[in-house]
Design a protein that fits this description.
The complex is a heterodimer of chains A (about 425) and B (about 100). Chain A is of the alpha/beta class and about 425 residues long. Helices cover about 25% and strands about 15% of the residues of chain A. The radius of gyration of chain B is 14 Å and the shape is globular. Classes of the chains: A alpha/beta (about 425), B mainly beta (about 100). Chains A and B meet through strand 2 and strand 12 of A and strand 1, strand 2, strand 3 and strand 4 of B.
Chain lengths: ~425, ~100
């Protein structure tokens, strides 16, 4: 089988609030367009709803009890086992592997190198403007700058006149361009920082979600029979200046309703912002003639509770925190070449064409897991999927604790 | 391909009640691990004692449980966990990876 390039796109804290997952509020036309030519896994779940454990689990295809990473404070190769990662596997098979933005969780969890050189052919690109992400860059009503949760900004007024995900997209486009005419297949992973908090996003995306049209979560209260151990008190949100000022009681809150509406407005706006960046990557594939030779995977590390159960975070086992988008575009399999020559993924400006809608090409309703991604991407790209792990696999460098979902692309779903 | 599709997740906690580090406890502080299995029609979670030094979970040390039947409760707001379900579901959990 011919080997395909891989464009692997990850969002951060993106729940299934997308048009292609049935969300009627969000405006995500570029991701919906991708889904219309892809296989969409409607019920895909992360193994642990927090960044580093989930990303390491997905990228090694091992569950947290095998990576033994439950926090942000260890590197799996020295802490549990020298497990081969998905990009490392592609690299070992002759691919040129590249990483932009947040793919691995930075810091000790990826050995302060994003697992370079094991996983990547070149060092990871990190946007310089991320240095300002948690600083006082949000203009408040008092005209001063604060470290707010709600942080819609005029990009031209930000340090460097840019935001991290815009910078990452520029770099990803540059890397795609540099590889377009090379005979060596590539694996490019692009990790966006949004819609993770703070919602430091271009302010124009807020206009897509007028506050008077926003609604609260359908179940905004902490359920009466929820065991206290299952609840998370969303301390990262509480620490932001604008939330801290609300003087919300710990641990159960609640956040005032008008502020809840604004959080939801900003989250949705952040999703539309990410959608526009995904659209830029996809039209770049078209412009470079790569659409027919590149599979595209779109997913997230986990979800986020938008007020459901009185929570505003991941950090739980609720479906809103663990369920993720998982979309596979495989040229020749989920879509056929358009011989009329039109672009496969024309860019849709969500700010002017927000009402564009699409129908999914194929949906899989059965539950799947992010540990399934490694074997499935490998197989669908034209490599052999790693073998299933034995029950105890600490000494096994290359194996998978997930399933190869390739059969779902060929057969109708059962059950 | 004929097996029931199931997805697992887990989440650690430092204590049975919410505290400042409940969201993201350091490994050494983890005392409880919530293991979830979910399929088409339900989500079942057991919060079990966990030893961060040995990484061992104590399946007899049940701190809490959750069971949501998704057909009538898609938002997972009505926890119907009870001991009557417990033995059946524990058998199922123990037979899975």
């Amino acid at each position: 089988r011919e080997r395909k390039n891989v464009l692997f796109i990850m969002a951060d804290d993106l729940r299934t609030s997308l048009g292609c997952y049935g969300d009627s509020v969000v405006k995500s036309p570029n991701i919906d367009q991708l889904a219309s030519k892809s296989q969409v896994f409607l019920n895909a779940f992360a193994q642990q709803a927090v960044c580093a454990p989930s990303r390491v689990s997905m990228l090694t295809s091992r569950r947290p009890d095998t990576t033994r990473l439950y926090d942000f404070n260890s590197y799996w190769r020295v802490h549990s086992g020298n497990y081969t990662t998905m990009p490392q596997y592609f690299k070992s098979e002759g691919y040129f592997t590249m990483s932009v933005g947040k793919v691995f969780h930075p810091g000790i969890a990826s050995n302060y190198t994003d697992d370079y050189p094991y996983s990547w052919s070149i060092p990871t690109f990190h946007p310089a403007s991320f240095a300002y992400e948690k600083q006082k860059e949000c203009k408040g009503e008092d005209g001063k700058l604060h470290a707010n949760l709600l942080c819609a900004v005029n990009v031209t007024e930000q340090p460097g006149g840019i935001l991290p995900d815009l910078e990452s997209t520029d770099e990803a486009v540059r890397l795609l361009t540099s590889r377009a005419n090379d005979h060596v297949p590539f694996f490019l992973a692009v990790g966006f920082h949004k819609p993770h908090i703070p919602f430091r996003i271009p302010q124009e995306y807020l206009s897509l979600y007028p506050i008077e049209q926003m609604s609260l979560a359908p179940d905004p209260n902490v359920p009466k029979l929820l065991p206290p151990v299952a609840y998370n008190p969303w301390t990262d949100v509480r620490r932001r200046d604008d939330v801290h000022k609300l003087n919300i009681s710990f641990p159960y809150g609640p956040i005032p309703k008008d502020f809840q509406l604004r959080i939801r407005q900003h989250y949705y706006a952040a999703v539309s912002y990410v959608d526009s960046l995904v659209g830029r990557l996809l039209i770049t594939l078209d412009e470079l003639g790569l659409t027919d030779s590149t599979m595209v995977v779109f997913t997230s590390d986990h979800g986020w509770s938008l007020g459901e159960h009185g929570e505003w975070a991941k950090y739980s086992n609720f479906d809103v925190a663990t369920r993720v988008p998982l979309i596979f575009y495989v040229p020749g399999v989920t879509a056929v070449h358009d011989w009329l020559g039109g672009p496969t993924f024309p860019f849709i400006d969500v700010l002017t064409q927000s009402e564009r809608s699409f129908k999914n090409f194929k949906e899989i309703k059965n539950v799947v897991e992010l540990v399934d991604v490694f074997p499935t991407v490998s197989y669908m790209a034209g490599l052999r999927a790693p073998e299933p792990c034995p029950d105890i696999s600490f000494q096994e460098e290359l194996c998978s604790e997930g399933d190869n979902l390739a059969h779902t692309f060929r057969h109708r779903e059962r059950g | 391909e004929n097996e029931e599709a199931i997805a697992f997740s887990q989440y650690p906690r430092p204590a049975d009640t919410p505290q400042v580090n409940s969201d993201l406890p350091n490994l050494i502080d983890i005392k409880v691990m919530g293991y979830s299995l979910r399929c088409w029609d339900y989500r079942y979670t057991l919060w079990l004692g966990f030893d961060p030094k040995t990484y061992q979970v104590n399946v007899t040390d049940v701190h809490a449980g959750e069971l949501y039947l998704l057909a009538g409760d898609p938002g997972q707001d009505k926890n119907i966990y009870s001991d009557s379900y417990h033995s059946v579901m524990m058998t199922k959990l123990a037979s899975l990876p």
